[in-house]
Q: What sequence folds into this?
């Protein structure tokens, strides 16, 4: 059963970032059985106009979710599994086994202290297959259920139409949105929209058109293949149209993500993470 301890006295700010807490402050918060948000991101190209450190967006958004939901956000793991970006200098990709081991170590540092309300906020979709393997192993080893929210995949087709009109979900792609608009909203001083370049034709492999970063298309069906971003395109824009991105769209997407995640965190705070059932 979750309990509420006394809030900090007047003049002492209630902290929601683990990196800002003293160990005494964190130890005191454990009496509340807080939800811990484990932040994951990536360092990779995002087209010619956006900073490579997309983990900065997850750090900002994760902090806002933690504050809104009265949870605690961990320092972000800024490097992820993104092998298809290895051909572009400046990215930092972890090997699959390194990523799984690092994530398991992060989770175990909480589990070893009996801290079980853990939620992963994943800011790089390519991390998810390895996250899935890790949280399944955690479930087998400890019985603890660790949900993972993939931040950039929370928009429905209707949501995309609401922000991009008829273009709709066509805006969703690497080098397009949501990253470009959210970066324009949260990190405008780092953006270089003047560097946007358009390519009318995407790459081919084995005589077939590439399908995003996951394969090629044959008779309108995707076949998996080891596609690198440079096989797909020369400008780092694998799809979408970043020229349509705006700070206002970024604001709306950011607010949607924060609202959705806050609601889920509050829900999970009522659940026993070892049974998956609501607590009495």
A:
């Amino acid at each position: 059963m979750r309990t509420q301890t006394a809030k900090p006295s007047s003049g002492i700010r209630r902290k929601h970032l683990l990196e800002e807490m003293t160990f005494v402050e964190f130890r005191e918060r454990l009496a509340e059985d807080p939800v811990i948000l484990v932040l994951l991101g990536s360092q990779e190209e995002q087209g010619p106009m956006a900073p490579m450190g997309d983990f900065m967006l997850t750090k900002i958004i994760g902090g806002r979710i933690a504050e809104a939901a009265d949870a605690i956000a961990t320092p972000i793991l800024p490097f992820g599994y993104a092998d298809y970006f290895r051909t572009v200098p400046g990215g930092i990709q972890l090997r699959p086994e390194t990523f799984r081991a690092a994530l398991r170590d992060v989770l175990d540092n909480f589990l070893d202290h009996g801290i079980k309300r853990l939620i992963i906020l994943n800011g790089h979709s390519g991390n998810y297959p390895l996250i899935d393997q890790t949280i399944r192993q955690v479930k087998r080893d400890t019985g603890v259920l660790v949900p993972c929210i993939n931040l950039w995949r929370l928009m429905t087709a209707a949501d995309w139409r609401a922000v991009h009109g008829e273009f709709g979900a066509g805006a969703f792609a690497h080098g397009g949105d949501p990253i470009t608009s959210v970066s324009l909203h949260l990190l405008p001083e780092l953006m270089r929209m003047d560097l946007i370049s358009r390519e009318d034709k995407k790459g081919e492999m084995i005589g077939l058109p590439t399908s995003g970063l996951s394969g090629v298309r044959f008779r309108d069906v995707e076949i998996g293949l080891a596609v690198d971003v440079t096989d797909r395109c020369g400008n780092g824009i694998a799809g979408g149209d970043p020229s349509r991105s705006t700070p206002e769209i970024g604001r709306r997407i950011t607010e949607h993500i924060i609202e959705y995640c806050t609601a889920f965190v509050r829900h999970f705070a009522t659940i026993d993470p070892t049974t998956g059932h609501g607590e009495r």
Residues 18-165+251-268 form a domain with the Rossmann fold fold (CATH 3.40.50.10310). The beta strands are 36-40, 72-73, 118-122, 148-150, 204-205, 208-211, 215-218, 221-224. The two ends are 7 Å apart (CA to CA).
